[in-house]
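PT: before anyone asks, these are the final sequences, not the draft ones from last week. 361 residues across everything. Please model them as a single complex and drop the result in this thread when it's through.
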Amino acid sequence: MIVQSLSARNFRSYERAQVELGERVTVVTGDNGAGKTNLLEALFFGCVGRSCRTRIDAQAVRFDQPVARVEVEGYESSDRHSIAVALDRKEGKTYFADGARVESLEPFEWRPPTAVFMPDRLELIKGAPGVRRGHLDQLIAALWPARRANRRSYAEALAQRNALLSRGSGGDQLDVWDRELARHGRALIADRQEGVAAIEQRFAAIGLELGLEPAPTLRYRTIADVDPEDEDAYVTALADRRESDRQRGFTTFGPHRDELVIKHQAREVRTYGSQGQQRISLLALLLAECEAIAEVTDRGPLILLDDVMSELDATRRHLLVERVAGIGQVLITTTEIEHVPSEAPIDAVLAVADGQVAPAT
Ligand SMILES: Nc1ncnc2c1ncn2[C@@H]1O[C@H](COP(=O)(O)OP(=O)(O)O)[C@@H](O)[C@H]1O
Ligand SMILES: [Mg+2]
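LR: through. Structure below.
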């Protein structure tokens, strides 16, 4: 879906915002604290149904107001679509798709796949492995929706086995769950390896283009490194650890302990990368995913880039804008309009000031 208009009421600093977006690149300018990130967040909220900044949605309701509302409109193929999300401090959220009240936005596949780059998201690069695993699993769900089931089945089998271990249950029951865990664990590992395979080359190329020289690398590291064709070997590996797992009270073998490893110059960016290297790694990862999603699903993603220009030099800025404009619909915020290359395919510039947003003159 291409989003053509966004309107927000009582969302963050906006009492009212109503804007038309460009179909390719929209630039949002304004001073620090003006409300640029708030506008990006509102767009994300309207497309995804939650905030990209906080888990506590109510924080996005304008101070001293009871309800926020965001609406987006646009088209997918030749059909017009709309989404509205109302957020009531007391009652929670209400969703509307094409004007009808719905329980969830998830089934509406015409919504754009959405990627956000903002400084808070560095956690994805720097944080614990579980953050990256969860992110990779979301990529897999976006690329191949049917495979969501593998992840769910694995999590269920894992919870069952852990419960049996901590209860000290007998071997027969564990045998059953070891087999289940092996089946779903192998499927999950295969999905994740395929997910990484779909983005690793793009990741390296984009990282290099944006200034990481030599190119950074992306790899799925599994601790369950038994022959993927051999379910029995996996079952044996679980059985071998059964006693020590019982002592710890949880399963120590399997993809719930795997890692998505990002390296630059053979060292993990997570631990040794500079802030700048971590930012570029994050950007390269998100853009590589967007390219893969666009290619596999034939749907153009919505790419929200918050404050991405300030740390790039002019050449890199140019390469970045060229690249993202070729992937999907893009919003870029910046305090300095000069930071956006003048030859870029920009079709709208919005200026934020005094709590208002309007087309720049
Ligand atoms: N729930 C809220 N209600 C009203 N104002 C808010 C709310 N949350 C944040 N703000 C205000 O939004 C402003 C920051 O906007 P932001 O979009 O982050 O600025 P920037 O243009 O620098 O990205 C701050 O002045 C902050 O007080
Ligand atoms: Mg900001």
